[in-house]
Design a protein that fits this description.
InterPro entries: 6PGD_dom2, 6PGDH_NADP-bd, HIBADH-related, HIBADH-related_NP60_sf, NAD(P)-bd_dom_sf, RedAm-like_C. The chain is α/β, with parallel strands linked by helices. It has helices at 15-26, 42-47, 55-61, 72-84, 101-113, 143-154, 170-198, 203-230, 241-258, 263-277, 288-294; strands at 7-11, 30-34, 50-51, 64-67, 92-95, 117-123, 137-140, 162-163. The protein is built from eleven helices and eight strands. Strand 4, helix 4 and strand 5 form a beta-alpha-beta unit.
């Protein structure tokens, strides 16, 4: 049974891998590290990790192997011989490499063929947050494996580490969806800043008001979730879809008049128009969830 001083090897010491290794050392694990270029191990050795001379030595040390590599292709390339030669047999592999759900499932099958248990994960925070309260790492795969690793390995990487499903692809799928939300939000924020700038509004003033607006976004997420789960969008008395459409058209007209680009806003307006055309103008904006899940191509 794993506990304090669990033997963990961290393979690959990029920014995230190094952060994972440091957090595990501070969490009381017996940590070995290995990187193709040995120069990256010095700082971690200073914290208490042991630098393994070879990949095989690192794997022989470990009960649990943790890695965050640039791609799943890099994972397959690095571990190909180790899997075939049985170096991972009886060990638990925790892969925090970003990819899609199918890549996670293929990796699970590959590691299982070598006799290893497998959890897949994704890190939604910057490496500097790993191990702290702001760390956001999610995991998917066998729940019993997650439970066994939770206290000795997962908790040191961040108190908010969460299991999101038995399907090993679930963590990647959730990460991809939330990353889409993040990326479009970043682009929308910048598009709005350019709109404000065309009216002579300073970036600082725009930022201050935008931060306050995040409370409205948070409240909308919280209130819309039960509607999407129940598939009942009859309304909360806040703002109907047709109100959102009128607002989007007004903003688009103002931005165009000011000479600002409206690429993302134009797409958003089309979403609202599609919902209203389908007869849902008096329902909550969350009704778009039904249109998008039922009609994956634009109507």
């Amino acid at each position: 049974m794993m506990g304090k001083n669990t033997r963990v090897s961290v393979i690959g010491l990029g920014n995230l891998g190094s952060a994972l290794a440091g957090a595990l050392v501070r969490g009381g694990c017996d940590v070995a590290v290995w990187n193709r270029t040995s120069g990256r191990t010095a700082a971690l050795e200073g914290e208490g990790a042991v630098a393994s001379p070879t990949l095989r030595a690192a794997l022989e040390h470990a009960e649990v192997v943790v890695f965050a590599l640039p791609t799943y292709a890099a994972v397959d390339d690095l571990f190909h011989d180790a899997i075939d030669d049985g170096w991972l047999k009886g060990k638990a592999a925790v892969n925090i490499t970003t990819g899609d759900a199918d890549q996670a499932r293929a990796a699970r099958d590959r590691f299982a063929a070598g006799g290893a248990e497998y959890l897949d994960g994704d890190c939604g925070s910057y490496p500097s947050a790993v191990g702290g309260d702001a760390s956001m790492i999610i995991y998917s795969g066998p729940k019993d494996l997650f439970d066994r690793l939770d206290e000795p390995v997962i908790r040191p990487l961040g108190a908010d580490g969460a299991w999101v499903g038995e399907d090993v692809g679930a963590a990647n799928a959730l990460f991809m969806a939330t990353t889409a939300f993040f990326l479009t939000s970043v682009a929308a924020y910048i598009e709005g800043a350019a709109h404000a700038d065309r009216h002579g509004i300073a970036a600082g003033a725009y930022a201050d008001y935008s931060v306050k607006y995040l409370n409205t976004v948070r409240d909308l997420i919280v209130s819309s979730t039960p509607l999407m789960e129940s598939h009942d969008h009859s309304g909360m008395g806040q703002a109907a879809l047709e109100v959102y459409l009128d607002a989007a058209r007004t903003v688009e007209r103002d931005a165009t008049g000011a000479g600002a680009r409206t690429d993302l806003l134009t797409v958003t307006t089309r979403y609202f128009e599609e919902g209203v055309r389908a007869g849902h103008g008096t329902k909550e904006a969350s009704i778009l969830f039904e249109l998008l899940r039922q009609n994956p191509t634009p109507q």
